[in-house]
Amino acid sequence: MAIVQIFGVKGSSPTRAAERFFKERRVPLQFVDLNVKPMGPGEIKRFADRFGLTGLLDREGKAYADAGLKYIRMPDSDLLGRIEREPKLLRLPLVRCGNLVSAGEDPAAWKEMAAAPAR
């Protein structure tokens, strides 16, 4: 079985759902609390390549509205900086297993990750 990385924040119910999903299936996982250790630009890029930088944003979340992002357009470089400083802007959890990635609560993608062979 491959090791699954979950990027999220403590207290986020979708993040807890992902942890529970993989623990119930006894899939080895590594949890990265984004409030303690922010994602680096390279790791964000891995997810952005799949979903687009704006596709990683939680547009329905309180942090997005509080940041005023509904009304502001900014270059990707500025948006990347905001994401690095404020992980709650992201659709959490971000989950990675090898080359497989998911953003937000996505049990279908998690099932595929849980079935992935060890690398």
Description:
This protein has 119 residues and is of the alpha+beta class. It has a single domain, classed as Glutaredoxin (3-Layer(aba) Sandwich), CATH 3.40.30. Helix content is 39%, strand content 15%. Strands 2-1-3-4 form a four-stranded mixed β-sheet, sandwiched between helices. Helix 1 links the parallel strand 1 and strand 2.
Number of helices: 5
Note the beta-strand portion: 15-25%
Q: Please give the number of β-strands.
A: 4
**What's the architecture, going by CATH?**
3-Layer(aba) Sandwich
Instruction: State the helicity in percent bands.
Output: 25-40%
Mean pLDDT: 88
Strand arrangement, major sheet = 2-1-3-4
Q: Quote the CATH topology.
A: Glutaredoxin
Order of helices and strands: EHEHHHEEH
- CATH class label: Alpha Beta
Radius of gyration: 14 Å
- What is the end-to-end distance? 8 Å
Report the principal-axis shape. globular
Overall domain count: 1
Instruction: Name the CATH superfamily classification.
Output: Glutaredoxin
Low-pLDDT residue spans:
none
Quick structural gist:
With 119 residues, the protein is of the alpha+beta class. It has helices at 13-24, 41-51, 62-66, 76-85, 107-114, and strands at 4-8, 29-33, 94-97, 100-103.
Annotation keywords:
single chain, 119 residues, alpha+beta, Glutaredoxin, four-stranded mixed beta sheet
